[in-house]
Fold this protein.
Amino acid sequence: MKAFLNLLFVLSGFVLLGQPNFGEATISKLQNSTLRVSGETNVTGFSCVFDPTYFEPQKKIAYCDQGDLILLRNATLKLNLDGFNCGGKAINKDFRAMLEAEDYPEIILNFKQFNRVERGYEALVNIALAGQQHTYTIPVEIVQGDLKHLKGILKLTLSDYDLELPKKLFGLLKIKEVIAIEFDIAGILNTAF
């Protein structure tokens, strides 16, 4: 029994030593960000711009820099669907209906990690939309300056989220399945990662 307890103690030490050491960072001035959801129909395109005043004034995240890998915790952006403007009341209503805003009023972008790659960075991002979640790896650009910018374009397929695509004019106008979320998340980050 004593040998078993010693083994358990040693194994728990390995588990604790293997845990990454996370630092904390605060991001402020997120209201300088831009975010757009765009797509195509069989006739034309559409673009819905997010009002950045819906972002929290400050956001605390945790990070762990492990060389070519930066792990993140709490790096979540909640996009209230009321914050999107698609250019008119009717299309705003259709956009919210398509994304089931009554039941799921937010799109949630959860950045899990950044990988340093030959041409910059790749981000692992979990997207929660209409009650479902999927994870994507996308190329991103990190631009330094007075404000740091995280830029990228995420293309996703609406059928992955079991969304019913709206049809207009007796079914003659149809939205195509692939939409793009283009983001330029800007803010002041109180750390150098």
